[in-house]
Amino acid sequence: MSTHIKGVINILRGALFGIILTIIMFLLLAFIINISQMNETVISPAVQIIKVVSLALTGIYAARISGSKGWLTGALAGILYIIISLIICHLLKYIDLFSRPLYIELIFGAVIGAIGGIIGVNIRSGIK
């Protein structure tokens, strides 16, 4: 398998890892809110924290399995994570894709993913 195809697969694996992690964390958040009767004002900041943590872990995971070019692998995995999550939210009728500037979300995903990628490529003990 060529290096480019492996790179694309690693980016896709990283993005899917982040999406699955996000879903698990959202389910955990919903459970906590349900059993603790938290105020609904907690939801928006919690969602943002989950998104940042998931994006960073997406970058870390993608760069770690890639082994090189951590910032680039992490940034691309972050962008793909944002694209997939926006499509999922649109399909669930949660958002209208064209109601806000998407480039801000994509830049956010790229930056947080790149930071995670820099961390992930420098981690010595690996996730394989």
Description:
The chain has four helices and no strands. With 128 residues, the chain is mainly α. The chain is 78% helix and 0% strand. It is globular.
What oligomerization state is this entry in? single chain
Number of helices: 4
Radius of gyration: 15 Å
Number of strands: 0
Helix content: over 70%
Q: Stretches where pLDDT falls below 50 for ≥5 residues?
A: none
Salient structural properties:
mainly alpha; 128 residues
Summarize the structure.
By secondary structure, this protein is mostly helical. Helix content is about 80%, strand content about 0%.
Layout of secondary structure:
Blueprint: H1 3-36, H2 43-66, H3 70-91, H4 102-121
